[in-house]
Amino acid sequence: NYDSFGNASYLTAGEMKLPGMFLYFSISYGLLFPMWGSSTSRPAVHAIHHLMTMMIALKAVTVFFEAAKYHYIRINGHAELWSAVYFTMSFIKGVFMFTVILLIGSGWSLVKPFLNDREKKVIWVVLVLQIIDNIAVAILTQETEGERLYEDWSAVLHFVDILCCCAVLVPIVWQVNSLEKSSEVPASVEAAKTLRKLKQFRSFYLLVVAYIYFTRIVVFLFATILGFRQTWLRYFITELGTLAFYAVVGVLFRPMEDNPYLEMTRE
After folding, report:
1. Is pTM, for the whole model, over 0.90?
2. Looking at the predicted structure, is the pLDDT value of residue 13 above 70?
3. Which domain, by its residues, includes 72?
């Protein structure tokens, strides 16, 4: 194969644009990092905000290594070192992202300074599922698409990934239920505040559900109608959806004195 500049490439026609595309997204996350980092110098900063800063940094680095992996595959036909680095970073990023979403949903650092036992168990479940998920990814890279083993591990990958996504929704549901009970008290200033927090957590729940549905189901179905030259669009739409998700979560949880989430710690 040859790229748009006439250079020989070991990538398929549908993968030609991936190195540049991932590099652009890495730069986008890199630009998002200082924007978010500057907001964490404000007085209303909590531990979860620092974890969110690390999450953005990990995402930017992971996407950069993915760009490097495809770049060297394009040139040499293989990239064992870059692939190993990418898969390692992808595992760390995946665990960290799901954990941060879980912590936000449980209200840790914003509502309470600790996690209860059942929330800790959910984190361990997510960790185990992410390990299985990355084993499946590693095996898929060594197999040829269309073979039986590839199809089996591909099914495992999608199933485990959806389980991870469902697991992070559990603490959000618990928190929403807790706020619903608190909002049932007679009308008062505290009840009004609780009702506002309830609406915020419901918004976060819907945002996470929309992100999961879009990146795990809509993109998967969209990929089935793509031609072999447009397979890169699957990665593009996934990364675009993820970038939008990060941005919206950042807006919802930005450190500011009048943020309804942050009022929880002052009650």
Report:
1. no
2. yes
3. 13-266
